[in-house]
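Researcher: Here's a chain I'd like modeled. Treat it as a single chain, no partners, no ligands.
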Amino acid sequence: MSDPFFQPVSGFELPRFAGIPTFMRLPHVPLDDPRLRDVQIGLIGVPWDSGTTNRPGPRHGPRQLRDLSTMIRAQNGATGVRPFEAANCADLGDVPPNPADLMDSMERITTFYRKVIAANVLPLTAGGDHLSTLPILRAVAEKSPVGMIHFDSHTDLFESYFGGTKYTHGTPFRRAVEEGLLDPKRVCMIGIRGSTYDNEDRDFADSVGIRVIPIEEFHARGVADVMTEAREIAGEGDTYISYDIDFVDPAFAPGTGTPEIGGPNSYQALEVVRHLAGVRIVGADLVEVSPPFDPSGNTAFLGASIMLELLCVIAETL
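Model: Modeled as a single isolated chain. Structure tokens:
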């Protein structure tokens, strides 16, 4: 049973539209708070989108995700898991990025997450664009490479953009492999689709042993079969989960910068996470929620619901 301090505020105690929003109405525990030593899972915002190459906006994602996550209740209605009783969870606040300097922002993110890892807190992140994952991995996988299960409509394995720019939201996992942060033979990418510039990213995946499951295969085989393979690829070692909201069809998640049609529905978006049970997760993120493209908040609510599913599978393994 977790410490009562780490229980979220109930909607029966304070209306969901009232109070200062934190992730899932959890207590806010800054990195310099002595209570950080008691936190097991830390929810963190990375309000940064300097890696975006088309439609900006994910820098506003953590704030909207916090607001919509006030609808999250104490128990998972499908699995029965009560994550806030299984683990001490807290909102650790936002990494303060430098919106005028991409490289400085990445260093700030890595420094923040090194402190989180040093405190033995498992990070669950709300982005931010997908480049955010690279500096997070530099902290999470600092001692040894990790596997990864990656939900996305894009591989994010490109060499560069615009004639040599190495750091964009389309390149983080190419850099992560090159830097020895990911074990490519333990990486599975699910849901890849859409028109392409060329085959460069797929060719790189093939050359290093990354398993790419395109959306056509995902739909043909079904969630359970695909996720069985993903778990087998990840194996028993440390594994990072990275979830781009554009994995989901834009009919259900329009609030993102690079949407691709033909994706999973919102139920499947949750279902794939439930099949992560048993994976040795050492960190996870939900990225690319862009509030300017969905002022209704529906995309952010789906994102917050996905974060709850991630929290449940993580809490069950601690």
